[in-house]
TrEMBL record:
InterPro entries reported in the protein's UniProt record: Spore_coat_component, Spore_coat_U/FanG
Source organism per UniProt: Diaphorobacter aerolatus
Occurrences of domain Spore coat protein U/FanG (ranges): 152-286
Protein name, entry field: Spore coat U domain-containing protein
Amino acid sequence: MARGASINGSIAVKCSSEWTDFWSNRNVAVCLSIGTGSASASWEPRQMALNGTRGAASLNFQILNSDNVFFGSAYKPRPVVISSLQVPGRGGTSQTVTIPMRGLISSTQMPATMAPGTYRSSFGGSNTLLAVSSPTIGTPADCSTTTNVDATFPFEVSAEVPNFCAISTVSDMQFADVAGIGDTSRNAVANIAVQCTYTTPYKINLTPSNASTNGQGRMALQSGGTDSVPYSLFQNAARTVAWGNQSSSNYSGTGSGLVQNVPVYGLVPANLDATPGNYRDSVQVTVTY
C-alpha cells in the first residue's frame, strides 16, 4: 500500500414494500453509520492494526463519503443520510440506492517506520448501523441521530505494507594521487544511501567490473596503455572485512524506514609499479531483501 493510496467502494441499500402495504408510495429515510472499527479507539483518523491486533503497530486511514467528507455515524459527527427515497407499494416492489464510499491513506498518514505486514480493521457488529424512518403517511423523521439498529452492513478494511528496499544514491570513490614505487597505500571512502521498510533485513552486494566476488577490483588506465591498478573494498574503516557479493562477504543491515548511509572503504596498495595516468573502474551495487 503506497502513500496517497485510495480505493473506491459502495454500499447498496435496498428497500422493499410488503404485499400488505396498501399505500401507493412510501417515503423512506435511511441513515448509514460507520464507527471506529475494531482496531481503533478514535474516529479521526481511524486505524488499521498489524494483523488486526488492537494496540499493535497501526496505519491511519480515512473513510469518506461521495462528497469526500468524513463518513461518520449517529454518534460522531454525522452519518450518510438518504432522505428522498420513494418505495412503490402494492406488489412487493423495491428501490435500490448505491452509496459511494472511499478509503484513503494520505501521504501524511503513513509513517516511514511502519513494519511490513497486513494491517486490518473489522467493521462488524456495533461498528455499522442502518437506521430507517418509514412512516405510513407523510415525511420521514430525521434519522441522523437515531441509534436504533434496523440492520448492519459489516465489512473489513485491510492494507498490505510490503518489504521494500531501494538505493537512492551512490557516491564515487576518489583515491588521492599515487607516486608509484616507494609510496604508501591510499585510502578512500564512498557512500551508499539505502532505504528499506522498517525491520526489513537486507544485503548490499558490490561487484567490480572484473566480477570479483570478494571486492578485489582493478582500475584500468584510461589512455596510453593497458596497465591496471588493484584496489580492495571493505566494510569497516580498519579495512579488515572484505566487501563482495557472496553471503560470506556482502554487507547485512536492517531497515529503519528511513534513509541509511552505508560507507564503503577502499584501499589501493603501496609500491605500485604502473604507468602514470588516470585509472578508473565501475562497481555494480545491488540490494537484496
